[in-house]
């Protein structure tokens, strides 16, 4: 049922995804779905869990590599997973997983970080920081970027010319639009590199050396 809901999500978006619409897709009466989900939030929880089930191996990163490479690989996989679905990041954000599919990838990442010299607490904070950046970035990307299959202005993404006109008295803010709302792939990579560098600079345990993102202690 969660898989059907995810397929329907690509057609309707989050706002159009209702239990009634899912019931119609399944050719059942809407009340029948309440045997499985008490409300829409419970459905979203299961949808987020289904996303993770299909991407768990990729979300583990590359634990046999240095910590920065592993975290970077995992966050790229998380972004790809979220982008597979219209409003995927909004669905994923703030949900509660319904099983432990997420646990193995998280364990692998935390082990990689602690072995590199992070305390358990710092490793958890590092992973949460990178994850929060990725989810937040994709929420904005999906809200302002081109929508696959859309026509007209919605298909082209943010109208930067109109934005620049509105902000003509604020030239720096106007010019920033090109960096913020174009080239999402490059923008994500630049931001992720900054996050990983910051994590290494501020959270790596004193005494462990890090010459840059991804370095293990000497």
From TrEMBL:
Listed Pfam families: TetR_C_1, TetR_N
- UniProt keyword terms in alphabetical order: DNA-binding, Repressor, Transcription, Transcription regulation
Q: Return the PROSITE patterns for the record.
A: HTH_TETR_2
Q: Which SUPFAM superfamilies match?
A: Homeodomain-like, Tetracyclin repressor-like, C-terminal domain
| Stretches assigned to the HTH tetR-type domain | 1-55
Sections of the chain in a coiled coil: none
Q: Which residues bind DNA?
A: 18-37
What this protein is called in its record is TetR family transcriptional regulator
